[in-house]
Amino acid sequence: MIALPRPYLVFTGDLRNEVNAKTAYGVRDWAPESCAGQWSLPGCTIDLALPVLTPAEARAKGVKSLLIGAAPPGGALPAHWIGAVVEALEAGLDIVSGLHTPLGSFAEIAAAAAKSGGQLIDIRHGQYERRVGTGIKRSGKRLLTVGTDCALGKKYTALSITRAMQAAGWDASFRATGQTGIMISGEGAAIDAVVADFISGVAEQLSPDAAPAHWDVIEGQGSLFHPAYAAVTLGLLHGSQPDAMVLCHHPTRERINGFEGYRLPTLTQAMELHLPLARRTNPDSRIVAVALNTKGLDEAATAAAIAAAGSETGLPAFDPIKHDLSPLLAQLETL
Amino acid sequence: MIALPRPYLVFTGDLRNEVNAKTAYGVRDWAPESCAGQWSLPGCTIDLALPVLTPAEARAKGVKSLLIGAAPPGGALPAHWIGAVVEALEAGLDIVSGLHTPLGSFAEIAAAAAKSGGQLIDIRHGQYERRVGTGIKRSGKRLLTVGTDCALGKKYTALSITRAMQAAGWDASFRATGQTGIMISGEGAAIDAVVADFISGVAEQLSPDAAPAHWDVIEGQGSLFHPAYAAVTLGLLHGSQPDAMVLCHHPTRERINGFEGYRLPTLTQAMELHLPLARRTNPDSRIVAVALNTKGLDEAATAAAIAAAGSETGLPAFDPIKHDLSPLLAQLETL
């Protein structure tokens, strides 16, 4: 488990590509109260509409860490960004990174951190207790987002549901399982970086015993239908013991993203596969709704996709970004 | 992937408990040609019926490594065994260990290895290429043992089938996925120690493209029904892309070993869950037989268990340790 020093100064290097800055946008959109400012290198075209601050100015305003809000192609830290990280350490900030390369593997960064006493926090290499799952039922209620593929809205759906629950006065926590989610919530476990033997054990720790009416809304990862990542998905599913699953789907995607030989399953196939696996660790687990990612569809196409999903599954369907979630909450209240 | 220096001098410390020496027995039973001798400390009651050799004598006879054939409770190396490991290094041997504690974390062992140039090979911390699965079909044929629980015969079944294939003149390889299996075959990947994101990618590397008639017989791990280890099982299943699965079962075990809240599934339930998951990466995957662990059952009880399994599943059933496997081979020849 990781707890991150906030607020952040969000750093976007010299990026010119919004897709590579998705971590920065995700944190700004979902944790604006944790984002005190933005900082970049000359040439950067990303504007998060946050106050522009140098590390020294940010430190003076109470900022705790520099967040590297970029995923450059390859996931490595570009060499010409190292000076900026060193400058932030010298200004008294910690560094938060979700890149694959550990921050401490750069000699200049390691030396600057040793001198300043700043923490180097690599989210993908985070701390968690390495223990195997127990399969023992925990108190409180849990919702897990699951999906027919990667990268189709499991995190945004979980965040939207958490926000709707909190707005309705419910006792609810978002539980992050990936790097951007962790940066948004300030804590969590990068579940895909866990040694396979311990994945359901870490998932169990992520949503511990809670008050009976408390909801943990757990960010799903991967897909049971994904030829590379299904193991991550199943370990998270077994350890989460969800009372409710929301099935996330992309109505116009036909193939698993990046795996052309693999068709997306139908919603029916997804329901049939998830239920017996989920019920192994929680016999009362059920799929309560379908969340569609209808980004780019107009109103008529969105309505048609929602209607088709509802008709196929017999479940309520919605786009969590476009639609009101109070019907879902009413349904969850009956569980 | 790991390739181990053999033959071994099998070391059993001062063990007095046969269960804790199961690695030593497994290696002796399944790779006798790799076991040149045994060595122990005063007080040990384990006798593998191998020549008793000191490390220096073993080295003179061409032994390449000391194999720590013991799993003491807790999986740690007892402090009073360190001197023996150092003696083996000084005699010119490498060290092979499947314990959780890395050999190099003991200062005396690290120093002795640095001085002798001996390798410290920790199987659970083995090398493999960290890459995600591709889901792309590979040439050659693959059989994977799967099961209703851990520790009921998946390794022994895979080894028995490999041996039967080789005895029949087939081109077949045993593919080890756990520490004892690796020590037996001399290579493999400890799949439960792989970072979750890479588990199917490592499983793909473990049974690479092969000649069309070649069989890889892959040691299964865990169970899809296991509340702690199902993720390991699914990643191995997806990456293995088995043409044939042999379903291993214990006819009298009622509960998942060590998880009292979890019943063993029926064979029917196991078939229903394995097939759709296996067919995701190999649409032609099928369960070809049931392998029962009937150790401790008399002849009549064994026959009754075999008949019940065959009747429930409609598949051939056998105990791979007690029965002739030529009917299975005849069946596999038709795939």
TrEMBL record, chains A, B:
SUPFAM superfamilies: P-loop containing nucleoside triphosphate hydrolases
Pfam families reported for this sequence: DUF1611 (PF07755), DUF1611_N (PF17396)
Transmembrane segment boundaries: none
InterPro entries, sorted: DgcN-like, DgcN-like_C, DgcN-like_N, P-loop_NTPase
Residue ranges annotated for the D-glutamate N-acetyltransferase-like C-terminal domain, each copy included: 132-328
Signal peptide start and end residues: none
Domain D-glutamate N-acetyltransferase-like N-terminal: 43-125
Superkingdom of this protein's organism: Bacteria
Protein name listed in UniProt: DUF1611 domain-containing protein
Source organism (scientific name): Sphingomonas canadensis
